[in-house]
Design a protein that fits this description.
The complex is a heterodimer of chains A (202) and B (462). By secondary structure, chain A is α+β, with helices and mostly antiparallel strands. Chain A has five helices and nine strands, in the order ααβαββαββαββββ. In chain A, the strands form three sheets. In chain A, strands 2-4-5-9-8 form a five-stranded mixed beta sheet. In chain A, a hairpin with a 6-residue loop joins strand 8 (183-188) and strand 9. In chain A, 36% of the residues are buried. In chain B, the strands form two sheets. A five-stranded parallel beta sheet of chain B has the order 2-1-3-6-7, sandwiched between helices. In chain B, strands 4-5 form a two-stranded antiparallel sheet. Chain B has helices at residues 16-28, 40-49, 67-76, 94-101, 116-132, 134-141, 145-156, 165-178, 182-195, 199-211, 215-228, 233-246, 249-262, 267-279, 283-296, 305-317, 321-329, 333-337, 341-354, 356-372, 377-389, 393-405, 409-422, 426-443, 448-453, and strands at 8-12, 33-37, 54-58, 60-62, 65-66, 85-90, 108-111. In chain B, strand 6 (85-90), helix 4 (94-101) and strand 7 form a beta-alpha-beta unit. By secondary structure, chain B is an alpha/beta fold. Chain B starts with 7 loop residues before the first strand and ends in a 9-residue tail after the last helix. The chains are: A alpha+beta (202), B alpha/beta (462). The interface between A and B is large, with 44 and 37 residues.
Chain lengths: 202, 462
């Protein structure tokens, strides 16, 4: 129902505005007192991401789901994920490395793809021993974005926890170019030793 | 890294706390000065007086205005140099839907909440992009289109240009269209579509086809965009303009009526609606739309002589010659002096219609110029009406003949027929039509566009 979507969207919009005010005030204190409150800011950003993701999931699972595809710079996208997750991971002793070999702009839904990769990196962070790698390259059939870790890998494939994976697959599938659809694959056997999350966009 | 200690920021947001948050973010980055604007008018005023280096504008500005409208208005009045950074700030995912569709986009958009570091990263990239396009911006501003296109072409093929591939293609297409090369613009937009079916690129194809007077093809393209992306309101404007050129004035008005309701404070759209309603014979809608424009488009300099002429025209159509006369005679002498020839001709014609004793001498005085000069279709329509009113048949018929032989025949056909009918001259009109068609067959220079659209007087379906 459209009215329900509007109510959800407006509530989440207001909540994110409030979170922005909180985050900016923390940033101001950090600068003023020369202290590091990055974990507090990380918690705020993660909460906001969670809200956005919930709304995005609701939107994507509807029949009239529509992406907002823009030409995106892949290196920039990777840098932003590193900026958002890197510090938090390194506090937990995990190093996030970025290897971007995709230098051209590519058409994709920038916010949703960024969010999906942020989520994948966060998940990897729960299992990794000391390393996560985010990589991007162009393959024959389009752009491949990959998150790998050195953890134990998925205990079962496909993984059982449904909704996140379902939304991810739907997001991949909604990316259509020249009649080809995107795909999302989860598997084990990374060069780092653990799980691989691989998003391919035509 | 760019040095923000010399940069002037302007933060535009209607909510005080949100403004404060943006100020903090900018100051944490080391901004030299941060100014605020709490509403639309205030923002325009500040930008006009002293263009900031970086504009952070919230998408939701309250009072029926959006940041997107602000961006469009700044471009329309040439208040936003390419070198200035315009960043849209939004808590809404819905803005992404807008930005993925429209032709006129900000340098970037960022979704709240965000850290100073993230904003800094985004601004760094924009600065890099602006540096990359610096030479092109300068050439474009000086309207050196050939040089600008050469610069873009060289950059497009360069290694450093890889991150800006789509932006370069888009700029190329826009410059080609602005410089009048609609065929190459079409090719450029189509090459973007080969990569991905962006609504803005398809709208560009439609605009390029319209400029080539390939109207049925243009219409098919824009119909596809409007159906696929209903929230892309500019596409509705393009569709309406194509419909008008095709002579489908009722459809044009319908399309504009719908979007104008959703964007009540978009006055460019209201002007377009007035034009469509006028052609469609709906004088009340035209009159209301122009009255709204003149009362509420409060941008300094927004109300032009053409607007006052349109208002007077709408009043004449609604049968209110007294109000039309008041509008025309109420125009400042300096404004009348500064009008271009088309406007002067329309002014004289409309005044002759609304107030014969005051307007006729002026109109007669212009007569030789009206015959000798190339004028717009809208102007010619005003002239032929005044000529019919004053019984100057040769002048009227001459305008009709020119119009019916022009590419805009379809657009004005219905109006001309109505005016001839009002003076009991339907037969004369049909005779002119026939003569124009005959001449066309005799000359038969056969440009492709007339074949495509059958845009001849004889091709009119009634």
């Amino acid at each position: 129902m459209r009215p329900l979507l509007d109510i959800l969207a407006s509530g989440i919009h207001d909540a994110k505005n409030q979170l922005f005010i909180a985050e900016s005030q923390i940033a101001a204190r950090e600068a003023e007192l020369q202290i590091d409150l990055s974990e507090a800011r990380y918690a705020i950003e993660t909460a906001a991401d969670r809200l956005s993701r919930t709304l995005a999931a609701y939107r994507l699972l509807r029949d009239d789901a529509r992406l907002a595809v823009v030409p995106a710079n892949i290196a920039d996208l990777c840098d932003e994920i590193a900026l958002e997750q890197g510090k938090h991971l390194s506090a937990a002793g995990i190093h996030l490395s970025v290897d971007c070999q995709a230098f051209d702009e590519w058409p994709l839904d920038r916010e949703l793809v960024t969010d999906m990769l942020n989520n994948a990196v966060q998940n990897a962070g729960r299992f990794a021993r000391s390393q996560i790698r985010l990589s991007a390259h162009f393959a024959l059939d389009g752009l491949t974005l990959r998150v790998e870790d050195d953890g134990p890998g998925y205990s079962s494939l496909p993984p059982k926890n449904g909704i996140g994976l379902m939304v991810g697959k739907r997001l991949a599938e909604l990316h259509v170019r020249q009649n080809r659809h995107g795909t999302l694959q989860l598997r084990n056997g990374s060069a780092l030793g653990g799980a691989i999350f691989e998003l391919s966009l035509p | 890294m760019a040095d923000y200690s010399k940069k002037r920021f302007l933060v535009i947001d209607d909510l005080p706390l949100a403004r404060e948050a943006l100020r903090i973010v900018a100051q944490t980055m080391g901004a030299f000065a941060v100014e605020f604007a709490s509403n639309y008018q205030d923002a325009i005023y500040r930008i006009r007086n002293n263009t900031p280096d970086i504009i952070l504008c919230d998408y939701m500005l309250g009072d029926g205005r959006s940041g997107q409208q602000m961006l469009e208005e700044l471009r329309r009045f040439n208040l936003l140099p390419d070198e200035t950074i315009f960043m849209m700030v939004t808590g809404e995912q819905s803005y992404e839907q807008v930005v993925s569709a429209v032709e006129l986009v900000p340098d970037d958009y960022i979704i709240k909440p965000f850290s100073p570091e993230k904003l800094m990263l985004r601004l760094e990239r924009i600065v890099a992009k602006k540096n990359f396009f610096a030479k092109y911006y300068k050439e474009k501003r000086q309207q050196e289109y050939t040089a600008a296109l050469a610069t873009l072409q060289a950059q497009r093929d360069s290694e450093a240009g890889r991150p800006y591939r789509f932006e370069t293609l888009r700029q190329q297409a826009e410059v080609l269209l602005a410089s009048g090369d609609a065929t190459s613009a079409e090719t450029s937009y189509r090459s973007i579509l080969e990569h991905y079916d962006f609504p803005w690129a398809r709208a560009g194809v439609a605009r390029s086809l319209q400029k080539q007077n390939r109207l049925s093809e243009a219409r098919a393209e824009i119909d596809r965009v409007v159906a696929g992306v209903p929230h892309f309101f500019d596409a509705a404007d393009i569709k309406a303009s194509i419909c008008m050129a095709q002579g489908e004035h009722a459809e044009a008005q319908k399309v504009l009526d719908e979007v104008a309701k959703k964007t009540p404070r978009n006055y460019l759209r209201k002007r377009l609606l007035a034009e469509a309603a006028t052609l469609n014979g709906d004088s009340e809608t035209a009159r209301a739309a122009m009255a709204d424009v003149i009362a509420n488009d409060t941008m300094p300099g927004a109300i032009s002589a053409a607007d006052r002429l349109a208002a007077a025209r709408s009043q004449i159509n609604a049968g209110d010659k007294i109000s039309a006369e008041r509008v025309l005679l109420g125009m400042r002498e300096s404004e009348v002096q500064n009008m271009n020839l088309d406007e002067q001709a329309s002014f004289a014609a409309l005044l002759a219609i609304s107030s014969p004793e005051k307007g006729k001498p002026r109109f007669l005085g212009l007569r030789p110029a009206l015959i000798a000069t190339a004028l717009n279709a809208g102007t010619r329509l005003d002239i032929l009406r005044a000529a019919l009113d004053t019984g100057d048949h040769p002048l009227a018929d001459r305008q009709t003949e020119t119009l019916m032989a022009s590419e805009e025949a379809k657009k004005v056909f219905g109006s001309i027929r109505t005016h001839y009918a009002l003076h009991g001259r339907e037969t004369d009109f049909r005779e002119i039509q026939k003569q124009v068609a005959l001449k066309r067959i005799q000359h038969h220079d056969g440009p492709t566009e007339t074949k495509t659209d059958g845009n001849t007087a004889s091709g009119q379906h009634q």
